[in-house]
Design brief:
By secondary structure, the chain is of the alpha/beta class. Strands 3-2-1-4-5 form a 5-stranded mixed β-sheet.
Length: 145
Amino acid sequence: SRQLPVVPVSTLAALAMGGFRASQGRPVACCLDARMGQVYFAVYAPDEDQGVRDLHEDSLLQPEAVGCAGLSSCFAAGPGWLAYPELLDRCGGVLAGLDAGLRPSATDVAALAHAKFLRGQTVVPALALPNYLRDRVTSFPGQLT
């Protein structure tokens, strides 16, 4: 009702912020189980001004489409890595560590939001809509996937 600006923050970016603390400055490959045989995946590097910089944008992928090509070393964060163990096999050569128990924290969301707010990256409340990577969230028996 007060029309205060809203700051959009990616769940995967917030997960990466937590991963940076354990990764010793390495990029963080974030993976969350999206259910329905898919994962939410992104790779972020630390950025002094913005908190994070995406190396692989937030994506909804089939597990077999996840790859770490182009990365020399990164840290894996999020429970999606254990939900689909084949991801570890595929990316194992570049993974410098794993914290599958790591979840996005409110502290990291707030830190990212603060940095965006200071840069003027806000939206009016009417445009503050979730960024759904999946547009279909249900399935029914017999329905094609």
